Amino acid sequence: PQNMPLQSKTTDCTLVAHSRCSMEWSLESVREMVAGGMQSIRECEICAFAIAMCVLLLFMWYCYRVGREGKGKHGSMLEEQNGFAFCQSSECFRCTSAGESLNQRLYHSLQDYAKRYTWSGMGRVHKGVRDQGRYLNSRPTIQRPEVFFLPDLPSAPFFSREVQRHDVELLEQSFPALLAEFESIYHQPPARSGSSLPPGWKANSTPRGQWWTYYLVNQGTPLVLNVRRCPRAWRVLGQLRTFIANNVFGNACFSVLTPGALITEHYGPTNVRLRCHLGLRVPPSCELVVGGEPQCWSEGSCLLFDDSFLHRAFHEGGAEDGPRVVFMVDLWHPNVAAAERQALDYIFTPGRLEDKEGK
Predict the structure, then answer these.
(1) Which residue of 7, 84, 249, 349 lies most exposed, with the fewest beta carbons within 10 A?
(2) How far apart are CA 127 and CA 123, in angstroms?
(3) DSSP H/E element including 79
(4) Is 234 helix (H, G, I), strand (E, B) or coil?
(5) Where are the transmembrane segments (predicted)?
(6) DSSP 344-357
(7) Contact (Cβ atoms closer than 8 angstroms) between residue 240 and residue 286
C-alpha cells in the first residue's frame, strides 16, 4: 500500500529475502543430504559386500581346516588296512595306561549320562569311576584291567557256560554256518601282490608264528566290508542277547593261530565283559592259559573267560595239524545289571572319550 510506512516496507522486504534464502538453503541442504545418503548407501553396499566376502572366505578356510584336521585325525587314528580298523593315537584310552585325564573324562561322561537319564542304579559305576585310578593301581598282578574296573563283580579266570546259556547255545548251534563262512573268507587269494593275507584279515604281532584276525566288530565299530562277506555270522551276532555291540569293549572276529604261534601274556581292558571263544578248528597241542589256569578249546563248544586276567595262548602243533581257529565274541559279565550296561554303553560309546580331549 502506498500509505504504508517506509519502515514496514523495509521489514517486509527483509523477511521475503530471508525466506527465499532459507528456502534455497533448505533445498540445497536436502539435495546434499540426499546425495550424501545415496553415496553412503553405495559405500555401505560395497562395505557389506566386502564383509560378506570376508565371512565367506573365513567360513571356507574354517571348513578346509576342519576337514584337513579331521582327515589327519581319522587317517592316523582310525585307518582301515585290509579291512581292519585300528587306533594309532597316543591318546587312545585303549593304547595308553589310565591316568588322571581319563578319570576326569569318565566322570564327566557319567555326570552327563546322569543328567540325561538317572543316577538310579549307578552306585557301582559311580564308585568305579570315582576311584578308578586307585583300583587299577592296586589290583593284583593276576587281574589288572588296563582301562576300567567295575568293583564288586565276581571274579574268576573261567566261567561256566551256564552264565550265558542262551548265547552259548546259539553260537554252538551256529557252528556249521560259522565254520563254512570262515572257510570262504580264509581261502580267498591275497588282497594284493606281495601279501599273504586274504581280504579283510590282519596280522598281529607275535614273537613267533602267525596270529591273524578277521574283525566283524572292532572296539564297538562294525567293519562294513567284512560284514558284507559274512552275512551269516552277522546274523548270529544280531541274535545274541548279551553281545557288547554299543561300546568300545565289544568285539567279534575270527581268530587264527598257525602252528608254532604264541600270543604273549597280556591283560584285557575291563572286567565288565566275558570273552567267548567258539572252537571251529582245534588241533592237538593248543592251549589257553588265564590267570595261571590252562584250558583247551573244543570244536563246536564255547569257552568263557575273563580276559582282564593275565592270559596267553599258544599252538605247539606241527604244520600238518593246520591252524587253530575260533570265533570270538565279547559278552556282558552276567553280574553287570541292565542299568549299568546302559550307562557303560553311553560312557564308552566309540569316540566319546577321545572327543573330550578335543580330538
Answers:
(1) 7
(2) 6
(3) strand 79-81
(4) helix
(5) 46-64
(6) HHHHT-TTHHHHTT
(7) no
pLDDT in tens, 297-323: 999 999 999 999 999 999 999 999 999
Q: Quick one: DSSP state of residue 231?
A: H
Q: Which residues have CB under 8 Å from 329's CB, separation 6+?
A: 167, 171, 237, 240, 243, 251, 252, 275, 276, 278
Cα angle: 217, vertex 268, 227; to 5 degrees: 10
Q: Which of 236, 216, 281 is nearest to 85 (CA)?
A: 216
Non-local CB neighbours of 322 within 8 Å, separated by 6+ positions:
259, 281, 283
Closest C-alpha to 145, from 275, 46, 300: 275
Residue 27 cell numbers, joined: 533445498
* Residues 6+ away with beta carbon under 8 Å from 189: 198
Upper half-sphere CA count for residue 128 (Cβ side, 13 Å): 25
**What is 100-188+198-348's CATH number, 3.40.190.10, 3.40.30.10, 2.60.120.330, 1.10.645.10?**
2.60.120.330
Q: How many CB atoms lie within 10 A of CB 129?
A: 23
pLDDT digits (tens, 9 = 90+) for 39-91: 666 666 677 777 778 777 777 776 666 555 444 433 333 333 333 334 444 44
Which one has a higher pLDDT value, 238 or 82?
238
CB neighbour list of residue 5: distance below 8 Å, 6 or more residues apart:
none
Cα(236)–Cα(232) distance, rounded to whole angstroms?
A: 6
CB-CB contact of 148 with 267 (8 Å): no
Distance of CA 225 to the CA centre of its chain: 18
